[in-house]
Write a sequence for this structure.
């Protein structure tokens, strides 16, 4: 499948690289030690996918997304998912205008560029389904009218993997809609020290006659470091990144190995391979390359494949995890094989 | 209702009522005693008809007319085969009419005369025979016999122990047969399964064809991954996270140039660096399995 699209010009590549550097720099002034997450966010943005962030509370997921949205000059909305949320709370609804006695459409928070769906697994499946349908089709029907969602449109959902009481786990079919699922780790000791140092330097903010203690959200620089046109240019550049036949062979082999592994009940779908290649292209661009290499594949395999694999009950009972199995698959690539 | 039926019902009533019911009319014997005319020319009294009483059960013989002076019962000792009681004695002309009650203690025929005597002490020799029958519900020899053995089937050959041993042998033989069959099937599966090719065996033909410029498209991917696997093994990075391995390999002074050139050859749109590949792959020619781990294997 060696792509034959027009190769990305080196000037475009340099301009996009510079734009990404500025975004990372801006995010870095507020959020410490989440370079990989920022990279995944930009990968999702540039390749038109959606991202699910899994991590315990307190890892600056919301702050990160807020900072990113301000940096890249995109519309941003945040919805805290709860059990009593209704689809109309996200998509919008028709309301009666008492002055004109007519119904008018009141669009929901989904009509934005960057939607943060906080703790998506706390909402009922009906709400999850409504959002995931909008993510897939990029349009919403309210009453009898269908509306296109703004472009670019990116959903960043978060999920707490520990506290599962009162939650509705996303089924495999809906998880498959997310191009990447990134699992956040705790920051290192040095990074955590820097977080504490920065937080301690925050003062108070006077408001009317009183004052409030400042948070990181209060010191966000709302000036964007680039325009939407630069995002569009980056998206175009991503679609021009060269994907070699050899790379496609690597992707196919990994995906097939997930289906043949004895511990895996449900292997990766073809959409997993598509997502992996799309994400690899964006990563290549972010690393200043006009072509993908196996490093992109290995770096993104966990985020692109793991949520699309389901282990057998027996294997789970033996204490195996999806990450162990995927690591085993990646380690076995190129090693011994049946003749 | 027939007479026989009457007798059976009466016998049951006697048994159920106990000795006191013996005072009831002499149905137990099914007949009345004999009349004798006042002149004494009547025939001697008949024995009570009907079913003979069994041992120990009281029986009545009523209205027995016997000539001569009044008779009384002899008090019998415990060894006597029969006990007799005169229930009633009424004058009947110059004779007497008696109601007897007796208990047979031994089966067989008995004569009531042996238990009678005149009240006035005169002889009883002219009395007719007063024969009664006592039957026994037990066997005639006085002991209960066991039931006759019923014919049954012959026991199985060898008995239960042999059956148990045979069953155990069959069970063990079946288990052994299953185990042997399972081993043979596994052996057959292993024999028919494709042989595992080691990393060196996979790498060698790929390197040879790459050096000759005959590498097929799908073999290029195998070559790249095999070289990554080789260096991962050589540098002891098997336990490292796969995502970190390539970063470390690219930074390695020996593996880095090789992998970077391979990437340029295999992944760049212009396939730059193809000319340098033969020189880079030459050290991997003829590499044996035992040389994969040795740093001296590739110079």
């Amino acid at each position: 499948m060696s792509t034959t699209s027009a190769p990305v010009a080196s000037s475009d590549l340099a301009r996009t690289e510079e734009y990404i550097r500025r975004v990372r720099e801006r995010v870095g002034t507020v959020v410490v030690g989440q370079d990989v997450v920022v990279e995944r966010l930009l990968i999702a943005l540039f390749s038109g996918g959606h991202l699910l962030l899994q991590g315990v509370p307190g890892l600056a997921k919301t702050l990160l997304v807020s900072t990113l949205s301000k940096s890249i000059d995109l519309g941003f909305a945040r919805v805290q998912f709860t059990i009593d949320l209704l689809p109309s709370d996200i998509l919008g609804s028709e309301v009666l205008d008492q002055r004109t006695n007519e119904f008018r459409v009141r669009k929901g928070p989904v009509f934005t560029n960057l939607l943060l769906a906080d703790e998506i697994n706390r909402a009922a499946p009906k709400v999850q389904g409504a959002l995931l349908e909008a993510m897939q089709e990029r349009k919403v029907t309210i009453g009898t009218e269908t509306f296109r969602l703004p472009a670019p449109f990116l959903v960043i959902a978060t999920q707490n993997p520990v506290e599962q009481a009162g939650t509705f786990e996303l089924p495999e079919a809906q998880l498959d809609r997310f191009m990447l699922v990134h699992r956040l780790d705790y920051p290192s000791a040095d990074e955590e020290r820097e977080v504490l140092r920065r937080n301690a330097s925050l003062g108070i903010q006077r408001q009317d006659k009183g004052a409030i203690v400042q948070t990181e959200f209060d010191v966000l620089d709302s000036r964007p470091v680039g325009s939407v046109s630069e995002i569009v240019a980056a998206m175009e550049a991503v679609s021009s990144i060269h994907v070699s036949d050899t790379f496609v062979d690597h992707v196919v082999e990994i995906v097939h190995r997930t289906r043949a592994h004895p511990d895996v009940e449900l292997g990766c779908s073809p959409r997993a391979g598509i997502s992996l290649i799309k994400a690899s292209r964006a990563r290549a661009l972010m690393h200043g390359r006009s072509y993908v290499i196996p490093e992109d594949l290995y770096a993104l395999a966990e985020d692109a494949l793991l949520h699309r694999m389901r282990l057998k009950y027996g294997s789970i009972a033996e204490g195996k995890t999806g990450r162990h199995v995927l690591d085993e698959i990646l380690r076995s690539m190129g090693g011994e094989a049946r003749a | 209702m027939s007479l026989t039926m009457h007798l059976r019902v009466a016998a049951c009533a006697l048994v159920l009522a106990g000795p006191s019911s013996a005072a009831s009319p002499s149905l137990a014997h099914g007949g009345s005693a004999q009349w004798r005319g006042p002149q004494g020319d009547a025939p001697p009294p008949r024995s009570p008809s009907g079913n003979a009483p069994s041992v120990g059960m009281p029986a009545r013989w009523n209205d027995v007319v016997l000539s001569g002076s009044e008779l009384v019962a002899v008090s019998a000792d415990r060894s006597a085969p029969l006990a007799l009681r005169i229930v009633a004695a009424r004058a009947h002309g110059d004779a007497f009419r008696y109601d007897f009650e007796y208990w047979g203690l031994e089966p067989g025929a008995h004569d009531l005369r042996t238990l009678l005597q005149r009240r006035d002490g005169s002889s009883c020799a002219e009395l007719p025979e007063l024969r009664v029958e006592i039957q026994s519900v037990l066997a005639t020899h006085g002991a209960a016999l066991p039931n006759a053995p019923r014919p049954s089937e012959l026991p199985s050959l060898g008995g239960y122990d042999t059956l148990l041993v045979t069953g155990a042998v069959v069970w063990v033989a079946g288990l052994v047969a299953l185990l042997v069959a399972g081993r043979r099937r596994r052996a057959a599966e292993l024999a028919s399964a494709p042989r595992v090719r080691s990393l060196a065996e996979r790498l060698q033909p790929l390197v040879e064809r790459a050096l000759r410029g005959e590498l097929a498209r799908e073999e290029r991917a195998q070559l790249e991954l095999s070289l990554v696997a080789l260096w991962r093994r050589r540098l002891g990075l098997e336990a490292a996270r796969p995502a970190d391995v390539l970063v470390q390999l690219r930074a390695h002074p020996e593996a880095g140039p090789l992998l970077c050139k391979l990437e340029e050859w295999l992944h760049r749109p212009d396939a730059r660096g193809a000319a340098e590949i033969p020189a880079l792959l030459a050290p991997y020619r003829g590499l044996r399995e035992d040389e994969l781990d040795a740093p001296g294997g590739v110079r």
